[in-house]
Amino acid sequence: MTTLLAHIKIKPGKAEKWEAIMADMVEKTFETETGVNRYEYWKGQEENFYYCLLSFEDKWAFYRHQISDHHESHEFADVLADIRLEYVDPVTGAGGGLADTRDPALPDDADEGMAMAQERFPLDIAGWWTRRK
């Protein structure tokens, strides 16, 4: 499984456009993708700050999401001031039913899109997670 928390800062005056893009992204993601467990956007207390909780069956489903037509078709540069993806791992018995975040090796027969996604979004598994299992 792959689970992330995105920390998102929107440019001033772009919140309405951002929220419309996110509504479209969520709708199209659940309509067209497989392997999506969670895909939720939340407003933060700080103005123009949002969070997204994304969880996928595996990193391949996450990568397919990132390179999907509906993901690539939006003008994110017009609305995003900053985004930071943080890979997270559920606490055993308290993680909402989500499984551990895993980082399997890229298969030898992976297509170009998967290889590009692996390069752009490498999983960052914190070493201390495995010591706490």
TrEMBL record:
Presence of the UniProt keyword Oxidoreductase in the record: yes
Protein keywords: Monooxygenase, Oxidoreductase
Gene3D superfamilies membership: 3.30.70.100
Pfam families documented for this protein: ABM
Keyword set includes Oxidoreductase: yes
InterPro entries in alphabetical order: ABM_dom, Dimeric_a/b-barrel
Domain of life: Bacteria
Chain ranges of the ABM domain: 2-92
Record SUPFAM superfamilies: Dimeric alpha+beta barrel
One GO molecular-function entry: monooxygenase activity
Identification of the protein by name: Quinol monooxygenase YgiN
